[in-house]
Amino acid sequence: MLRPINSGFRERRSLNGLWRFQADAGSDGWRAEWWQRPLASRVEMPVPASYNDIPAERELRDHVGDVWYQTEALIPLGWRGRRIVLRLDSATHRGTVWVGETQVARHQGGYTPFEADITGHVTPGEPVRITVCLNNELSWATIPPGEIETTEDGRRVQRCFHDFFNYAGLHRTVWLYCTPVAHIEDIPVVTDLQGTAGSVDYRIETDADGSVEVELFDADSVRVASGSGAVGRLRIPKVHPWAPGDGYLYTLRARLRGAGADEDRYDLPVGVRTVAVDGNRFLINGRPFRFTGFGRHEDSEIRGKGHDDAFMVHDFALMEWVGANSFRTSHYPYAEEVMEYADRRGLVVIDETPAVGLNMKLGLSRGAPRRPTFSEATVSALTQQAHLQAIRELIARDKNHPSVVMWSLANEPDSTDPAAREYFEPLVAAARRLDPSRPLCFANYHDAESPGRDAISDLFDVLCINRYYGWYVDTGDLASAERHLEAELRAWSEGYSKPIVITEYGADAVAGLRAVAGSVWTEEYQRDLLAMSHRVFDRIDAVVGEQVWNFADFGTEPSLHRVDGNRKGVFTRDRRPKLAAHALRERWMAPRRPQR
Description:
Layout: E1 11-14, E2 17-24, H1 28-32, E3 44-47, E4 66-74, E5 83-88, E6 94-99, E7 102-108, E8 114-117, E9 127-135, E10 146-150, E11 156-160, E12 174-179, E13 184-186, E14 189-194, E15 197-203, E16 205-206, E17 211-217, E18 223-228, E19 231-236, E20 250-258, E21 261-270, E22 275-278, E23 281-284, E24 287-288, E25 291-295, H2 309-322, E26 326-328, H3 336-345, E27 348-352, H4 381-398, E28 404-411, H5 419-434, E29 440-444, E30 463-466, H6 478-495, E31 500-504, H7 523-538, E32 543-549, H8 579-588
Parallel strand pairs: 25-26, 25-32, 26-27, 27-28, 28-29, 29-30, 30-31, 31-32
Antiparallel strand pairs: 1-12, 2-3, 2-4, 4-9, 5-8, 5-12, 6-7, 6-9, 10-11, 13-16, 14-15, 15-19, 17-18, 17-20, 20-21, 22-23, 23-24
């Protein structure tokens, strides 16, 4: 699925803005067929945004069930004779879409796009009503999973198994776009380097017969290679590789020709680079790479998970200021604008599916009872099917981004349960078939505190480990934390000849809470815990990366240990630096010893 673009052959129009909105906890809209007419509600809701924090009342923040969005769009007269498509970049977590009175799309999964060809349902030059019913419910048949609980007074409460707020809404852009009737559908590319030369293997997928021509242009719009045919290889004699800190992009221009004339043309940004794992080294373009950066969230005040270009650019500026060269899309795919910006900025990305909460040992939300993680009543074949869909859609969307160097298939699953192997083996195999060019990982939970307790790490290429020594373990005792962290990491290093990336470590700190002694919850303790962790990392050759949890404070479900959200950010939720941010800058911006 290609991203909508503006060109001489295609045109896109954003439908972002204020949409009519109606909450519908009882699913009355389905019975009354609300898509048949304008919504009676006079409430308006911004798109893109989470709806939860927009109103002043609490009811919508805790809403469980359906909500309805509706807008009217004018189909441009100039689109007559074109293929017209409606695309939603996300609908969290399930969306059903009508154009006029006709249902045109339905999609499960809150973080990847879906679209519908609506050519036969609209008239160029005329307006059309677009209605979206969105549902935020999670179950054991969804990724991420969850459960609905009914309280004694009849209220429905969503129980989640992840530690961030279950924001919902149209979080990303809704597009109308047009293409030629005969059009290019997808362009998978794989790049390689051979000394000072480079190559781009491409496949042009179309919906029509016709000849295909391909050209490759450098950043100065100079043509450096060309070819013909739907499948081929473009060679670049003197290549400028995409590299961390150097987001150099070529443009692959694909033309679909019919009867001697262009039918369609699509320009795809391409970064030429390689990724490989060699023993305990992670290589980009054949050179050892050390990850410095963060786990993050798409999260800000009022907007929730709604994408915002201003926040994106500011967050990247802060990451670059602190010396980060990478981040993980914890715990779901981020907006495509973020991936494109990472490509251009040269930031490295570990791209993660929404598979968070596959672990009944965590019991994060509302006192969840302890049950087996893998069973017919919890993580089952239905969960696995949804997980596989999430993997397919993530790779289909992000396969061409040079910034993406690794796929993370899950965050903190119960990998100590032997049943995890039967669950993950087919998912790993599917991911390798879909993209053999990138390594695979998952983020390992603390309960698997030694290789002997883990059932699945041998299936993956890189060990990504989430550990909180000095916070959840050895709380307030950094001397013990240092010993225990080093002992565990040495066990992993000796048990596997694989690179280790610490994908989560850190401590909560309340901004402005200061103490000479550096007790827990202070900015000093957060800084000192990070320094302790870094001493350990630097003593172990297999550790090739450190990604602090978290870049910024973020919203969570309220609880006794989450006061106004998770405070593990080195920046506050409104992006003010804590002491830890300055300490990280001092470490990450300093010259480092050469890696092996």
